Fold each of these.
Amino acid sequence: MANMEQKKITRFDLFKVFTASFFMQAVWNFRSLLSIGFSLSFFPILDKLCSTPQAKREFFQRHLKFFNAHPYFASFALGISIRLEESRAMGEPDQSETIDRLKDLLIGPLGALGDRLFWATIKPACLIFGMLGIYLSPTVPFKIASLIITFLLYNIPHFYYRYKGIIEGYEHPLDIYKFVSQNRFEGIRRFFVLLFLLSLGSFLLVYNQSLLSQNFWLLFVFLGSVILAFILEKYWKNFYLVTLVLFAIFMVIGILLF
Amino acid sequence: MDIVLLSAIISFLALDITIAFQVLISSPIFACPILGWLLGDVELGFEMGFLLQLLWLGRIPAGAYIVPEGNIASMIATVLVLLNKDIGYPNTTLAIVFIESILISYLGAVITIYYRKFNNRVLEIVVKEIENVHFKMTLLLEAGSVFIYFLMVFIISLGTILLSQKILPLVIPFLGELWEEEFVVIKPLMLGIGLAFVLPIFKDAVLKRQIRKNG
């Protein structure tokens, strides 16, 4: 492995890859999934990793193979690939197989971790927090402030893991498994689960109270639609059908009750 | 504001959904107030964002799973509500636009499938260009693919808004005269359906279960 004094890649180079990684899903396709965006994320440092057109061609051919991960957590695979490609560029033994194997091994964990942490916890927690902020804020400036907090609440961990993934992948390419274990993210997950819980609980409390003060039947519509949609969704598993059927049912109820 | 420009802004914000950045700016609570501000009623934009956000939150775009394109639908719905607010009948407008947004979210999901199929072709061209040592061409192809997505959303937005603007001014007063008061159920209904879709992921998050992909 390339030692510290000989390194071609600087922190600023890794930062450039970090900025390019924001287009990771730009050419998402059914055959190779993330591979094009993943490969093109290396573009800012391509000249440092490959000195000849032939080497560049082989580089892209290696990385255009099937690859998938959560878009934020794919940065770990980016960091690993940069480090191993750098070693190769510096004349160390060919690590193509190691890169392929590591990337293949990481597809599952990086996808599962990111999906569970960001899509299923941080994103809904932040957006419901933002909804609550909008609902409770009396004036537009307060609503804007609550949206700014929501934006930061989501994007601080987003940017952090995107960047940190590249750095850690680069610094610890062969023992990356230590950095992508579920336990490592348990603290942040718990924080956002708590936020999710508090935001949803507060929203329900405040909104139900507000409906009750307007008209009891509005509360009936709200709770009735929650229960009915939950049951229908469980059996039908079809977003469009559940939504349209409930709309029809409750419009009829509305006509009958109001 | 010009509808063409509005459609371009919707298409630009839609890039944030998956194509670029993914910083949440395309989510209803962010995008709808922006559109509200551009159309001169930021308060209504906030309200639309609040009402529409929960609906799409329960759909997780894990792996290759294609979810209803709720963010695009919410943006178009907000524009339609804002453009028709002077007709009166706010509940009726919201009820009609809500149904329209569900259909747009379906259309958006179909377009995502075609866009991804189109990207299969882009992959073939990228591989060919790499073979021919035209590396800069790959960046151009990436930019081209992003532009195609922008264009697809632009066409959906412009087409839907133009068509709706022909139909809604006729339908809203007609239905509003009949059922404006009865349609008061639309807001709690939208939030209720949205909440029902969020509950399973909430349960999974609390119980540390693996992600489920609802059909």
Note: Chain A has ten helices and no strands.
Amino acid sequence: MSELQAAIFGALSGSLFAVMALGLSLLWGFLKIINLAHFGMVLIGAYLTFEVATSTGLDPLLTVVIGAAAMFVLGAVVQAGFERWQVSEFNSLLISYGLLIITVQVVSNVWTADFQRMGTDVNPYGANSIRIGALSLPLPTLLAAGFAVVLVVAGKLVLERTYAGRALQAFGQDREIASAFGIDHRKLSILLAGMAGATAAIAGMLHALGESLHPDAPFEWVGRVFAIVILGGIGNLTGTLYAGLLVGAISGLTAAIWSPSASPFVVFSMVVLALVFRPTGLFPSKAVH
Amino acid sequence: MRNRGWIGLALVAVGLAVVPLLVEVLDLSTFYLVFLSGILFWTAQSTSWNILSGYSGYFSFGQGAFYGVGVYSMAVLFGRHGLDWLVALAIGGLLAMLLGLGIGFVAFRLRSLRGEIFALLTLAVPFILAALVRLSDTIDGGQGIVVPVPEFPEALGSFQSFFYVCSAVVGVFALTVAFVMERTRYGWALFAVRDDEAVAEGLGVPTFRHKMIAIAANGLIGGVSGAVFGLNLGFISVEGTFNLTVPLFVIVMSVLGGRNHWAGPMLGAVYIHTLQNRLADSGFEGWSLIVLGGILILLVVLAPEGLMARMRRRPWLVSGALVATLLGLGLWGGWGQPVDWLAVGLAAAVVVAFLPSKRRSGVTARARPSAAERLYEDETPGERGRPLVVAEGVTKDFGGVHALRGVSLTVSEGELIGLVGPNGSGKTTLVNLIAGASRLTAGTIAVDGTNLAGIPQHRVAHLGIARTYQIPRPFSTMTLRDNVAVAIMFGRDPHGLSEARAAAEEFLSLVGLDHLAAEYPGKVNLHERQLLEMARAMATRPSVLLLDEALAGLNPVEVDNAVRVVRRIHDSGVAIVFVEHVLRVVNQLATRIVVLDHGVLLAEGDPAAVMSDPAVVSAYLGKEGHARSH
Amino acid sequence: MLSVMTALLLVVAACGDGGAESTTTTGGGATTTQGGTDTTGGQSTTTSAAGPSGDPIVVGGTLPLTGGLSATGIIHQIAGQLFVDRLNEAGGLLGRPVEWNLIDDTSDGARIAELYEQLISQDAVDLIMGPYATPNILAAMPVAERHGFVLPQHTAVLAPALTYECQFPGWSIGPAPNEFIPNQLADLFDSMDGAVSTVALVTNEGGSTSFVSYGRPDVEEPSTSTILPERGYEVVADIPYPIGNTEWGPIAASLQDAQPDAVLVMGLGVEANGLIEAMQQVGFTPPVMFALFPAPGPLLGMGEASNGLLSVSMFEPNEPILADLDSELVEIIEEFSQRVADAGLPYTVFETQAAASWNAWSLLAQGVEGAGSLDHAAICDYLHENGADLPFAGQVSFDQEQNNFWPSNQVLKQIQDGDWVVVWPEDQAAAEPLAPTG
């Protein structure tokens, strides 16, 4: 029983990492931007939730409106910069790393380097769970799973049903041809980066529901989130969600059966095997090759 | 140019050798030895990273693995088990090299390996290693290892100078490897891989072997450098070793300094390490990361190709600014310490490098002599001789689609075969198969008596097959001369870089491009790029040249010129398979015509006979209009 | 335009140091008369009423002001700065003002050696103060040894590895923390009338915590995992987890299966928070819960969930303890809290970390005053011969056989109604331990 419980715990917290990974995967897949600053936006989103909820008593879930709006703007501005200077894929990595460390420092200056945590008085979700029989589903990560599903479904609808979405897909596949068809790449990419920023804020809010905040946290996420992006297939939304659940479940199971220390070993070995045998991701989608 | 490089490397080596003297004479503190050792450590790490990732374009996030293996070898073998430190160092380097070879063996054999997949494979490796160390009781027991001070020759005086000497040896070794590679086949093979791996392989570059050499060098240097650095760490722990610092900073330093020059990563290391040191000590609490991040962003935006590229444009001014600032502040002596002067000097050098330049280094179009004038005009087709390519029952399926079914074809010495057929008839597929770029589903192809089954593509090139691409695929970061030189370096009659460069002129003049030798492919027109394809292919000294629609997209004047070049190549004794839509040209050139339709050989024979074959007329000519409109 | 900005940034970065003055704090010339004992230098003779004069004595050191360890790094920064300020108000060292040249080591152990080399040989500081956390202290130790500098430090746990004779701890869990901690815990459990008979060991694999749980890998020695069974407490679950672990659910599920009477989280920072929440989520509340080195603040914010949680402590400003305390120490505790609050930190109480800092600074000051000079050999000898009177540990002596780790004064504290309260041993307790729940 504890193995099943552990797998569920793992899968649910994997879905939180999947929410973090969504925006990263989109930008990488469609815009060829490896945006480390995305982690910084998750961090800001988390601290905004903490700040607003603690100072106004607003339900932390609702604070996401503020965070998402702010991070939409920030994401769009950063992308506008990338467009303005025609940044290449790996230079984007460098620039966004610069942005990330600036963000970490600013967060540390504003909210101190000490741990910050929403008290139980403002955060009714933190330690709560929904019980199904003997199994329990922790509320913070269950909410993360819910958000992940909603975001993926919404994202797929936008990508497949709207002109902007299809244009973006065309761009992800071949920039030159898409430009030839008169698609305005700049506007679209700024819009997409804004949306990715908003998902970062959502991920941040979800993180703040269950965890203590520390400015250095992004560096703890990087490995796992990248693993999920790759396993899911770069630019593949549903794949990202599945990869998050899978990585989480396996990590949880490994922790219960073998040892928590073995989790990273199993997860990253899986990444290597997946890359070797399924280089396009574990969950190929028709949308992006 | 070449000499200047050697002088640069020698200057670095001599400079490092006199540092201990300088420290003595100027009465500088031992800190400068440790500080420089830090720069040298980062130089070795980022240079070794750059040998693989900068030169070949395969970005690695796994430098931490090589570094970590080196550090841990030193800590476990020397620190914990008391082995001789030099033995531990050697084992560390060796293990890291083996790890590199292992990663390369898995990754570089993936047919569909893309850059980001490699990046992520390498990202996973340090995480796996870290987890292994944690899980294992025998490595460090999970609590970290204290590394004692090793015994060193007394002549070196202090541990600091011992550590400096070790770091300097490793640093200079790394730079020398990078430098030598940049001037030999080893580096140029990687440059070709970076620009276009498939083309490189087709020209005879053993890409797998060279990537393996690069990743082995990366591992070896990374490991040895890590092992040396471990001596100064005092205490080794998993989380202190396998974190993101090393993998991220080697990228930051190399990209900032410039990936296309052996000294680029060193430059990045000097800048970043000095900056970090000064920021830590600056008292800008709460600002250091903001300043570091800001500088990083500005420099990448300003100099996307790296500082080295900027500074090389005015080397004297830049080094003058650095030296003048250092000397000025030093002689004045009224402010700061030498490391502060260095920081200001580096800042001055950047400013000078970025000052706007009045001279535009743009391309000045020179008047070109008509290439056509210097080409032969005679039209004697060669005699048919010994068979060079024998294809039998060639079948190729893509999924469920039969691209080729049972095609047999022989190309003999002296032939100029026109391979024609409507779109999708399998012409390019056949060219790919003969060039060894893809594998047969059934049938055999033999080149000069050697069956191609299981032979890597570059070996096919060495058997005497060369090809061009319908859409030219030049190595975009190399001049036209170097494009051809690479082909010579790895062709059937291989040469070193300088000989190859000299010989390249010959092949460029064969196609009438000699006047553009120093130009980059991006600056020449489509026709010239197609001629470059031919020159490059000829430079491998093939016996059979496969021309895939070499006339596509050309205007009539250019077509005529290209035809003359093809004829000239043919006259030099090379058999040619000429894939073409323009029947006028095929009729005029070919000694024999082969017609494909829906993957089946429809007809072959001399031009006049084939063109009057009723089957050809109905199957092919009926569709010609459609095909040409494409 | 951009290039000008870059240049400016670079120049700003370069000039920031400006001759190593900007980070340091010079003691004001103000004369302060202080009653009672001089807490900064136990045997001092030269201080008291006269203001410091002459060239400043510079103390160099690094702390993690950014990066993963910064949450605790800033506590040591504030505590150390407060010490230096008060020291200068009280006349400085050897009659000279004291400056602290503090460098941010960015929590990166790989930079420690270079930075200490810089402080000692380049910046030519007179004295040094150790960095924060065991790995970094171990990295600084060989540099100090090479230059013959006395290395006072506040937070090293891996006592057997700190072999340098002139390394002096301001916090000691004795020479064998791996034995002291489980024995103290077992003593407490013994007093609980059989409420605890089974325990679960949940251990962070980092050096210090793993050492307490399992001892050193190469040495057969008692540790928590062997001592507790010997003393009659069965270990029903033994779960190591990696540093930086964020997944507590699976561990909580295993604990629920094992149903131990006491869960011992041999972890750091907010790890105990994560585990407690996960245990709540699976509906398992162990009767007794212990966390080794938690961040004190965040646990208090958990309300009922963390009530009764035990941890180790060197000092807690509980009412009964404060009542017995020297008035000057009370003043220090209050001023510290004020400064922490001014810095905007959420948890402002002067506790173990700050006390450890204070002790380390204090023993350095006493060593210098006692030796009467800045000669490191003399300071080192003086401390070995005379020990030190540590404000938050009392008179201690430094035995080289024990790597200078003095007999521990560590106690057990417990969260009671939103405050940390010392509950064990009985003679030092500020309150009775809460009865085990459930």
Note: Chain B touches chain A at residues 59, 106-107, 110, 112-114, 116-117, 120-121, 123-125, 127-128, 130-132, 134-135, 243-244, 248, 251-252, 255-256, 286-290, 292-297, 300-301, 304 (CB under 8 Å).
